Amino acid sequence: NMSPSSSSSSKAALAAAFRSLAQGRRSARRFDPNAPPIPTSTLRDILTSTRTAPSGFNLQPAHAILVRDATIKRRLANEAMLGAGNVYRTRDCGVMAVFLADMEITNRIDRIYRLEKDGGCRDRNYMAMLPVAAAFLTGEGHAATLLKQMATDALSPVQPMPSIEPVEAWSYKNAALSAMMYTMAAQSYGLGTCMMEGYDVRRAREILRVPDRYGMPLMVATGYQYEDEEWKENEMERTPRLDMDELFFGNTFGEALDDVLLGEEENGDETEKE
């Protein structure tokens, strides 16, 4: 068993490692077109971590296509990307991870139910409500969503009711969680990443042969960053962020957090001292 002091040190080390990843990441401006391929073992480990991303009801609606073929990347760059920056990042990156979001959630409920049943991690009550609740909360189609919203809005003054989202919003939200997990895993290997939304989905869908069932919320260009003197001068500059008190509140919306929470960054004291 770990002693309290060693356990505390271990937690501090984990916090420092994550802080280094999260605060050290920048969106890559350029990728080195002459860099060696990203090792297969590295990509597999990144995907293994990505697979652990949480999702509502564990329905796991996010998929990803790893585009490594140079010809397909050039087609994406030349035919689908918007803006010069996205064009050359797509062309030069080692891997373009294209994240997809399932828009027909009800078609995967049976598969997830069997997966959960075989896993044996859930109690009977959860398993009994899973198919009904998942189908209700992730309903597809504008009319169905509107009817459910009207029903839950009417009952909300009487008892707590769920918020009904369009399936696109729900599935895109879950895909974004997977994309963030992928990005942080890539960062842990020293790879540069750039999340991108600037592309023609219709053209990208055709190039990648993506069925209409899936939305395409974002892509993550991944690879070794191009480093030169200009990069060394500019790449470490973090884009500006809003002040802490503009982003974070205490207890209710607009209520200030206490001074300790808001003052740590200004005082340069980002970690507790032991």
What is the topological layout?
Blueprint: H1 4-24, H2 40-50, E1 62-67, H3 70-79, H4 84-92, E2 95-102, H5 109-119, H6 124-137, H7 142-155, H8 167-188, E3 192-196, H9 201-208, E4 214-223, H10 229-234, H11 244-247, H12 259-267
Describe what is shown at a glance.
The protein is an alpha+beta fold and 274 residues long. It contains twelve helices and four strands, in the order ααβααβααααβαβααα. Helix 3 (70-79) packs antiparallel against helix 4 (84-92) and helix 5 runs antiparallel to helix 6.
Q: What keywords describe this structure?
A:
alpha+beta
Question: What is the tally of helical segments?
Answer: 12
Q: What is the overall pLDDT average?
A: 88
Give the class from helix and strand content and strand pairing: alpha+beta
Sheet-strand content, in percent, reads: 5-15%
Total strand segments: 4
* Strand order in space, largest sheet: 1-2-4-3
> Helix content range of the residues, please?
40-55%
What is the rounded Rg?
22 Å
Q: Give unreliable regions as ranges.
A: 265-274
Shape: globular
Order of helices and strands: HHEHHEHHHHEHEHHH
Distance between the termini: 21 Å
Quick one: biggest sheet? 4 strands, antiparallel
Structure description:
With 274 residues, this protein is an alpha+beta fold. 51% of the residues lie in helices and 11% in strands. It has a four-stranded antiparallel beta sheet, with helices on both faces. Helix 2 packs across helix 8 (167-188), helix 3 packs antiparallel against helix 9 and helix 5 runs antiparallel to helix 6 (124-137). It is globular and about 65 Å long. The relative contact order is 0.18. Mean pLDDT is 88; it is low at 265-274.
